[in-house]
Write a structure and sequence with these properties.
The complex is a heterotetramer, with 1 copy of chain A and 3 copies of chain B.
Chain A (H helix, E strand, L loop, with lengths): L1 E4 L22 E3 L6 E5 L2 E4 L1 E3 L4 E5 L4 E4 L13 E3 L14 E4 L2 H6 L7 H4 L6 E4 L7 E2 L6 E4 L1 E4 L2 E3 L2 H8 L2 H6 E2 L3 E4 L18 H9 L26 E8 L5 H13 L8 E13 L3 E14 L9 H21 L1 E9 L4 E3 L1
Parallel strand pairs in A: 1-10, 2-5, 2-8, 3-6, 4-7, 10-13, 11-15, 12-16
Antiparallel strand pairs in A: 1-9, 13-14, 17-19, 17-20, 18-19, 20-21
Chain B lengths: L5 E5 L2 E5 L6 E4 L6 E3 L2 E2 H24 L3 H13 L2
Antiparallel strand pairs in B: 1-2, 4-5
Chain lengths: ~350, ~80, ~80, ~80
Amino acid sequence: VYKQWIPNTNFENASNWDKGRIPCANEVVLFKSNEVISVFVQTTHSLMDMYLPLTGEFIMAPGAGFAAFDGSWDPGCDTGSAVSFTDAERYRWYDPSVWHAATSLEDLEQGNYIFAVDEERVPCQYDDVIFQPETSFRVNVDSSERMIHLRSISIMGQKFTSDMALADYMQSSSALRQFHGNSTFQVTNARCPDKSGCECGNAGEHGQICAALFGDNGTQCPALVCKDPFQPIGHCCEICGATISLEYTSGFDIRQYQNRLQHTFLSLPKYAGVQMAISKVRKPQTFLGIVPRASVPVVQIVLLDDKTGSQTGTHAEQLAEDIMHDIAEHGDTFGIVTGTMQVATGSNSSGQ
Amino acid sequence: YDEQPRMTSERGNLVFHTGSARNIEFRTGSQGKIKINEDDLTELFSQIRKNKDEILELKRSSGILQNVPSQVTLINSKIVSL
Amino acid sequence: YDEQPRMTSERGNLVFHTGSARNIEFRTGSQGKIKINEDDLTELFSQIRKNKDEILELKRSSGILQNVPSQVTLINSKIVSL
Amino acid sequence: YDEQPRMTSERGNLVFHTGSARNIEFRTGSQGKIKINEDDLTELFSQIRKNKDEILELKRSSGILQNVPSQVTLINSKIVSL
């Protein structure tokens, strides 16, 4: 899966300025003195006065630059007012909301993003991470395990697939302005070696991921209309919808099965509003329903729909039931032993 | 922007342009230096000025020697006529 | 990534960088100047060239004087032998 | 803000400032040049140094000629007294 970092610290990005627009020529442009920052500049800007940070960089795209302002009238601009670059320190690697995920570069470009549980919205160990070329960024990479495993990472158009090349880059002054925090990256250039799927590997950062998702102001999970909502493994909040947990044999191929679900069910017009996430997760085993014991890998299918009110989750439930029938009939051929369904809808609630 | 002085990126080169009759200025604090790769520009500028002064001094002292060759020729002719 | 020019700030120092084989260029308009603190860069560079020319001139004129000392020595010996 | 590097427009001039004891630096990659209009700065710098060396050489050789005028005067007086 390809994961693309969304925020950027580009000069031309209006959301990076406290006035919600890029500075006009006769304003005083302020960068905080102590803010370490990398700023990509795409075009030429006239300016009256700009205070630069003590440590930072401006990367100049072809044709980009800064010009003196001749004092001519600039409509819609308050002369002498100040516009500040906003805090770029706040973006965290483990925040699910700052990543786009897609199964191909083409999908990424076209905005065909995939749905995933929160842990897997953040880059997983076999993912290719992309920081878009022609952008600057700043990422807090603090993690509890101090190590981030990836397949590859692309930064400003350069793809790193080996630790050595990446370590070199990480010493550069640009890298020091782009990444801060206690983690180092390990890139393997390896795909998941198990055709039944690989765990994302972010379970250890679950607390951090959910904390980042809720933000500093302590936003909590949204209120749900269904009875007995439940929490899929790897997700931060409870949901209305359905999950199916699969036990599988060595013959199971997660990509092949995902394609089947896609073509057989999700492509049907009646399921147009349903989103599916499928991945291998580690399910905590309970002994007598109380004491956590060893955990086992299962394949989790999460289904959400766009229905509201009493209809919430009903399409997801219908799809889950279709899938369960399919497993009963053809499960053997795909290497599926059993499937366990859990649903929560606006109209009813049930568990099996 | 053409007439305004500016700093721009052109095919990877960093170009400082002055428009007509406008300047680009680099100003350091009293103890700051202007460095070009490893060279301290201030030192190089003072070397340029020192060179200029020393050339003036050399011109002055070589001016004094200007008529020596003709004097030597004159003396030679005097000796011959003795 | 290192091919794009950068303006960086390093602990308050202002640094202009280019990638390998890329230039930093100063281009003055007809009446525009590049000033480094109080110095006009173009003037200083024309001073370098002026210095060079004047040194050439000095070398030429001091070449003419090269054999004066030996001539003086010769004359002295002639006078003694008179 | 005194210590923050700053870029300002002053009556149409573009000015780069640094705080006290802060430098402004220009850094090219290993094969990059600093060009002032048509001139390569590195060449100009080596010209400054070459000028300095040649001035030293000129001073040395003009030092040798220093006492020639007095010798000529002495010879002249000798000739007269013959």
